[in-house]
Write a structure and sequence with these properties.
Elements: H1 14-43, H2 67-78, H3 87-116, H4 123-154, H5 164-175, H6 184-210, H7 219-246, H8 266-277, H9 286-323
Helix pairs in contact: 1-3, 1-9, 3-4, 4-6, 6-7, 7-9
Length: 324
């Protein structure tokens, strides 16, 4: 973004970073919400992809095949609003997550620079540490909203939770505080390498691409897409495990997929999926996930950079007018 070649982590005040991060998360989430619902529905399917006999125990659950057929099925059975199920907790999560993530990322990287002084870490290592730390903090802080997003998106025509308030009340009463953190281990285990890989890749590609002739400043978006595809593919099995664990509890058999097994723990869930569904089962929904995460990351980073620049320009103009 910067003409002088500054890095993302060096730019803007804390307030500007929070506003830009929250705005980027809000816009990106609304755009990719339908793909997120499709991804979750695919991830929660438990029949074997290679064994037709496993289809017998679906208990009336739909069989989704591919992104477009899944979208058509949801539109036919649940209407257009079905593609935005869970969007309210998801919007709250994305706004909070983005603000916390960018703020933590900036704080940690500046702290690392001060700590090491002249012997500053290589940019890739600095970005990896800051990105991983920022992802872990933001994931933990917003995890209950992530869980609610998944449970709403997993609902079919039967309403399990009538509203966001009702869902919080029901989970607290039936499952206790731990119910809001089902699968947190997989979430943190996924996000640390994901954000580390994402930010280190993004920072590595961002400056070289900014010197190329991309239209509308889309070099940032291109760097975001490439970084997201690489990071998402690397950690996708943990994302799937997280989704399976998030729908555990007393409502497990009432979601659109009524045959979700009872899972306990990340490694036992991993073993169970490989045993019953094969290794391919760990990558259900990867294609739509890449379709989702690539534009989401592109929109997030492009919006973040643009909003941050606007805020910084406004501050500069205010200072100039104050001097005059």
């Amino acid at each position: 973004m910067s003409a002088n070649g500054e890095h993302l982590k060096d730019e803007g005040s804390k307030t500007q970073v929070v506003i830009a991060g929250a705005t980027a998360g809000l816009i990106a989430r609304f755009i990719i919400a339908p793909l997120d619902v499709v991804k979750i529905r695919l991830q929660l399917q438990t029949h074997s992809l290679s064994d037709p006999l496993s289809h017998r125990d679906l208990r009336g659950s739909p069989i989704y095949k591919g992104t477009l057929p899944t979208i058509k099925h949801i539109l036919r059975e649940e209407g257009i609003t079905g593609l935005w199920k869970g969007n309210i907790p998801a919007e709250l999560m994305y706004v909070s997550y983005s603000a916390i993530q960018f703020t933590t990322y900036r704080t940690i990287t500046l702290g690392l620079q001060q700590a090491f002084g002249e012997h500053r870490l290589p940019n890739a290592a600095e970005s990896f540490i800051a990105g991983a730390s920022a992802g872990a903090v933001a994931t933990t802080a917003t995890y209950p909203l992530d869980l609610l997003r998944t449970r709403f998106a997993a609902q079919g025509t039967e309403k399990i939770y009538s509203s966001l308030t009702a869902s919080i009340r029901d989970i607290a009463r039936q499952e206790g505080p731990r119910g809001f953190f089902q699968g947190l281990g997989a979430g943190v285990g996924q996000i640390i390498p994901y954000m580390g890989i994402f930010f280190s890749t993004y920072e590595t590609l961002r400056l070289p691409l900014s010197h190329m002739s991309f239209p509308y400043g889309s070099g940032d978006a291109t760097a975001g897409i490439l970084a997201s595809v690489l990071a998402k593919t690397a950690v996708f099995p943990l994302d799937l495990i997280r989704k399976r664990l998030q729908v555990q509890g007393p409502t497990r058999s009432r979601y659109v997929h009524r045959n979700i097994p009872e899972y306990k723990g990340v490694f036992r869930t991993l073993s169970e999926i490989v045993r019953k569904e094969g290794r391919r089962g760990l990558y259900r929904g990867l294609t739509v996930s890449l379709f989702k995460s690539a534009p989401a990351s592109a929109v997030t980073m492009w919006t973040y950079e643009r909003v941050l620049k606007i805020l910084m320009d406004m501050e500069a103009k205010g200072k100039d007018q104050g001097v005059d």
